[in-house]
Amino acid sequence: MKPKVVYKPISSPEEAEEHLVYMGHLQNSARRYYQCALVIAIVVTVLFCLMAAQLLLFPLLCSSSTEKMEILVKQDNSCSDPCNIVLVESIPEGLEYSPNSTISPSVFQSWMTLLSQAKCSVDIASFYWTLTNNDTHTKHPSAQEGEQILQEMIKLKQRGISLRVAVNPSGSPTKDADINALRASGADVRVVDLPQLTNGVLHTKFWVVDGKHIYIGSANMDWRSLTQVKELGSTVYNCTCLAQDLEKIFEAYWVLGEANATIPSPWPDTFSTIYNKETPMEVSLNSTESHVYLSSSPPPLSAKGRTDDIDSILSIIDDAKKFVYISVMDYTPTEEFSKPRRYWPVIDNHLRKAVYERHVTVRLLISCWANSKPNMFPFLNSLDALQNNKSHYNIEVKIFIVPVSPEQKSIPFARVNHNKYMVTDRVAYIGTSNWAGDYFIRTAGSALVVNQTCTVNSTNTMQKQLEAVFLRDWDSNYSHVIHSLTSYKGKCIF
Questions:
Q1: How distant, in Å, are the alpha carbons of 46, 191, 327, 333 from that of 358?
Q2: Pairwise CA distance, residues 218 & 234, whole Å
């Protein structure tokens, strides 16, 4: 018996067409599914690769983007304020120059102007306060200017003006008369215990008024700094950019004046600056295009971006093309107050290098008075000895002596050239520190640096003014070549 054959039914043309359409739909669906799956696979693969790259390269990308942001910020270092800068001096009573000599406006008049123009705030960073005869136990009439300054400050609260003072510890309640008077008038005073924090002192001397005017220089809050001590500083008016940058240094002192304060490491970003020796402020000073920045010491008190004072000094010396003129009360390549004694030739080496390698002329004008340390003079003689008829090294040292009358001898810690500045053929530097290692390692100081070399044919730059002051003193009857000094123990004899 033959097996039964099963035949597939023959579809009609309509049924066949419907079948073909159905199969086509199935194929199209399968094709779309495959395409979607392929796209999803590609996307997943790309995302996986990106995630892997991010994990591997994220630190580099962050660093790169941060650096780019910093560069962008640093490029925006211009200041549109029409700033006015004035060189100011205190010339001690009895110190007289020849007719037509350069004489700058007085520190006293500068301080009185700042106080009269103040509308909102006065912030002062200071070493100590001795503005009256009572503090020095004297009855000298030249204390009148200091007493007038103190009275104007006591009146600030009545005018609706806040006064903040950051000051070094006095070490004795008997030395706090001025500070107590200020507190009683409503001033806020904070004692910054740098002896405990850095083993140094708060030696800086500057004012910030209304966040737009500043004074910085060698003068302490002392009546003698106005009439009995030779001082030099700078007052800058209507310069918000510069004043607010100096305010950041003051705020650092203010924070350190809190009870049980410690030095932050690092300092919060609010204390940082974009103005330094690499990216100085681009600003107009007396209608003259200028590059300006503020430096600070010691390094632990410098927030991000701030140039350390010693780095500022060294860079200015290294930048000089023709001359470096220095006028400071004390100069020694040592740490004056360290125990055991330490040699510190940092500045000394750069001066010798400038003379030897670049043939730069170096002149040092150093003070000699009853409180000069004898060990300073052999080091100065060593620098001066570099110059002789055969070496052709252009370096000289002179000693500046402020004349003193029998009456003036009774005034303690007076009759001295207290200047702390440097001027080169390119830069003016006005500081608050003596030039010894301690002042840059542990002691709080600050400085204003002005470079106006971008100005062509200008005859009234800060550099030119400061050079004129230096040459006036250098050529005066009060300056003496150091090798003519016969005695410096207790008094300066030539």
A1: 60, 45, 21, 21
A2: 9
% of the chain exceeding 90 in pLDDT:
76
| Residue 418 annotated as catalytic | yes
Asked about 155 being catalytic, the answer comes back as no
Interval 404-433: pLDDT, tens: 999 999 999 999 999 999 999 999 999 999
Strand segments (E) across 156-287: 162-167, 188-191, 206-209, 213-217, 221-222, 231-237, 281-285
Tokens linked to 198: 């850095």
pTM of the model: 0.84
Catalytic residue among 140, 212, 230, 420: 420
Separation CA 182–CA 179 (nearest Å): 5
pLDDT of residue 392: 84
Query: Residue 190: beta bridge partners?
Result: 166
Q: Which of 81, 123, 178, 203 is catalytic?
A: 203
Q: Is 483 a catalytic residue?
A: no
Whether 425 is a known active-site residue: answer yes
Which of the following is catalytic: 188, 193, 210, 311? 210
Round to whole Å and give the CA distance between 147 and 140.
Answer: 11
The alpha carbon dihedral of 150, 151, 152, 157 has a sign of positive
Instruction: Determine whether 464 is an active site residue.
Output: no
**Active-site residue, selected from the candidate residues 140, 291, 418, 473:** 418
Q: Categorize the per-residue pLDDT at 70 as very low, low, confident or very high, splitting at 50, 70 and 90.
A: very low
Return the sign of the alpha-carbon dihedral for residues 254, 255, 259, 265: negative
| 3-class state of residue 152 by DSSP | helix
3-state helix, strand, coil in the chain (%, to 5): 40, 25, 35
- Catalytic residue (choose from 140, 205, 230, 248): 205
Residue 218 contacts residue 419 (beta carbons within 8 Å): yes
